[in-house]
Amino acid sequence: MILPLNMEYIVIGDVHGCIDELKTLLAKQKFYCNKNNLIQINQHNKNKSIILLGDFIDKANESKLKETIEFIYNNYYHLNQQQKHLYLVLGNHEDMVYRYITNDPSLEITPKTIRDREKYYNTVSLLEKDSSLKEKFIKLYKKCRVWFYYNYNKDFSVTLTHAPCLEKHLREVDKESKSKMIKCTSRSENPQISLDELIPFTHLEAKDNQHYHIFGHLSQTTIRQYKNKICIDTSAIYGGMLSCAIIRKDKILFDSVPFEHKQQAGKQHDSKLFDFKR
Questions:
Q1: CB atoms near residue 189 (< 10 Å)
Q2: Element containing residue 242 per DSSP (H, E)
Q3: Alpha helices in the chain (DSSP H)
Q4: How far apart are CA 156 and CA 213, in angstroms?
């Protein structure tokens, strides 16, 4: 989970089945696909790696979800044959879908979990109908890691997780810390509360240094940064943008592509932007 320092990293926020936008964003970073939808490594990208920051499934329509899973699956094994060019961070949607399709005994089936499955985790029904796709998803799930760490020097580092969390949980391996890095307090259950109130550590623990924490999970209209805390989930599936952070030596750059309207955008009613109030 420690990233090699000789590579540039393209860290992509929550895809949620936005496969067309994913391909467009990758192409902007010189990752082009051949006719078989396999990304080609060449002189322009041989020193670059892609990191998907979790939640590549759910919310999109089934055809786009299927295309997304197959694209990531095929390229994971294609790109990582000789050198690592594709990393996967575990998001709460991958984690919950895996629990549903493997009949995790700790997942209590209640009217609420059934409603949640239909509303938030629509990949489950797709995988239940397609055993081959289910097998591919399970293999991808097992390749996901909860965090990655890029430690360039004593003045510059980047921790990557799907969700924001307290610093005491970052890069830890205990069960509680893992769960906090995958999912934070639910907005859907607290729709009237701003994110700054709901998860105050995003600003209370923010520091004026270059030891960054980059995460997704909380869809925003734009990339949001406060000091060393950066959220790159920019609401692609809700008609926004798909964004990435580019880690290049001791610098972080950003890029985005707009929603391409090749599927119906989702609707979000409980989004409260980070104000990053002190």
A1: 9
A2: strand 241-248
A3: 19-28, 62-79, 92-101, 111-120, 123-129, 131-143, 175-182, 195-198, 201-204
A4: 11
Q: How far apart are CA 49 and CA 174, in angstroms?
A: 27
Collect the ranges in the chain with pLDDT lower than 50: 278
Q: Where are the domains of the chain?
A: 8-258
This prediction's pTM: 0.95
Q: What is the pLDDT of residues 123-148, one digit of tens each?
A: 999 999 999 999 999 999 999 999 99
CATH number 2.60.40.1670 given to 8-258: no
Is the separation of the CB atoms in 163 and 182 below 8 Å? yes
Q: Which two tokens stand for residue 98?
A: 């895996």
3-state secondary structure at position 204 = helix
Burial 118-147 (b: 16+ CB within 10 A, else e): eebbbbbebbeeeeebbebbeebbeebebb
- 232 closest CA partner among 144, 167, 180, 158: 158
Nearest to 235 by CA among 188, 190, 269: 269
Q: Say how far apart CA 16 and CA 65 lie, in whole Å.
A: 8
